[in-house]
Amino acid sequence: MIATIVVLACVTFATRYLFLAKNLPFTIGPRFQRLLSFSAPCVLTAIWVPIVFMPSGKFVNELNNPYLLGALAAVFLAFKYKNLYLTTFGSLIVFYMFF
Question: Where are the transmembrane segments (predicted)?
């Protein structure tokens, strides 16, 4: 278990170091940079979709799902006000009102 964590930490560090170290003769092309720009939205989607739509391990398609209502409130507040704190706390309030 510990060995697995150490190996994965080394792999993660090595892949990050390749992209961040300026003294290495390694550059990525514009097509690969464009491809990498999609990685953050993909990872975030992979995190929030199961939380919102499968909070108990099974797909929930009801409109009174507090996770769905909180997520919808977050999307609305983010687009309308573009304020991180208002979006975060507003969506938390909506979530806890329906939880």
Answer: 37-55, 67-98
What local confidence, expressed as pLDDT, does residue 49 receive?
Answer: 96
The CB density around residue 95, as the number of other CB atoms within 10 Å, is: 17
**pTM for the full predicted model:** 0.70
Number of domains in the chain: 2
Assign 3-class secondary structure to the chain: CHHHHHHHHHHHHHHHHHHHCCCCCCCCCHHHHHHHCCHHHHHHHHHHHHHHHCCCCCCCCCCCCHHHHHHHHHHHHHHHHCCHHHHHHHHHHHHHHHC
Are 56 and 13 contained in the same domain?
no
12/47 same-domain check: no
Could you tell me if 25 and 45 lie in one domain?
A: no
Tokens of 24: 């290495």
